[in-house]
Amino acid sequence: MARQGGVVSLLLVVLLLGACLPAPAAAGVLLSTLPKALAVTASSKPGQVLHSGVDKLTVTWSLNTTEPAGAGADAAYKKVQVKLCYAPVSQKDRGWRKSNDDLSKDKACQFKVTEQAYAAGPRGSFEYTVARDIPTASYYVRAYALDASGTKVAYGQTGPAAAFDVAGITGIHASIKVAAGVFSAFSVAALAFFFVIENRKKNK
After folding, report:
1. What are phi and psi of 149, to 5 degrees?
2. What angle do CA 139, 163, 97 make, to 5 degrees?
3. Rounded to whole angstroms, how far apart are CA atoms 80 and 57?
4. pLDDT tens by residue, the chain, 204 residues
5. Which sequence ranges are marked TM in the entry (predicted)?
6. CB 12 within 8 A of CB 32
7. Are 145 and 67 in contact (CB under 8 A)?
8. What is the 3-state secondary structure (H, E, C) of the chain?
9. CATH classification of the domain holding 89
10. What is the pTM of this model?
């Protein structure tokens, strides 16, 4: 009987602890459930190469009134968040870049271009200098509309068909390449010199 009482007590403790623990986090917003209520364009041309830290990209957005959630639906939009997203060709065999319908798990849109207040009516725009840490890959642009709580409630994108390329900074500058070439040449010359000296010693 004492053993049964101990088991019951243990079960009660486990149940009480379970009740005190926070509920598991809800799944993230699904992209497939969001209205495509923003019309997004970028100044880049498909296939154009932009260089990190040098070239600029102008992104524009406006309300897409042809969508069911268009005209008048932007009353709840408080901010616009614009991101660069890896195009499908740059996601292949790279799990750390994969897109996911659950936006809390999405890894395709990692780089923020801007986040600013949403202005109803006229279109918004932003001139973006490609950040120096953007890696070499193909990208497209996506914009999210956020409500007062910061939740994504609508989106728009240029789409993979309008993808452009970014040439990232490798970190190897021309001066380093020249120095490496000089040292390589010096090493070859030194080896040849010592080879000649050794041969002379053997001949003597």
Report:
1. -90, -5
2. 30
3. 17
4. 544 455 445 444 444 444 444 433 345 899 999 999 999 999 999 999 999 999 999 999 999 877 765 556 788 999 999 999 999 999 999 999 999 999 999 999 999 999 999 987 778 999 999 999 999 999 999 999 999 999 999 999 998 899 999 999 875 444 444 444 544 555 556 666 666 677 777 765
5. 178-197
6. no
7. no
8. CHHHHHHHHHHHHHHHHHHHCCCCCCCCCEHHHCCCCEEEEECCCCCCEEECCCCEEEEEEEECCCCCCCCCHHHHCCEEEEEEEECHHHCCCCHHHCCCCECCCCCCCCEEEEEEECCCCCCEEEEEECCCCCCCEEEEEEEEEECCCCCEEEEEECCHHHCEEEECCCCCCHHHHHHHHHHHHHHHHHHHHHHHHHHHHHHC
9. 2.60.40.2550
10. 0.70
Half-sphere exposure of 17 (CA within 13 A, CB side): 6
114 bridge partner residues: 82
What are the tokens at 11?
A: 């079960």
- Those residues with Cβ within 8 angstroms of residue 113's Cβ, 6 or more apart along the chain or in another chain: 57, 59, 82, 83, 84, 126, 128, 141
Considering its fold, how many domains does the chain have in total? 1
- Distances 9 to 3, 6, 17 between C-alpha atoms, Å: 10, 5, 12
Structural domain contains residue 117: yes
147 within a domain of the structure (yes/no): yes
Q: Residue 193 domain-assigned? A: no
The type of residue at 56 is: K
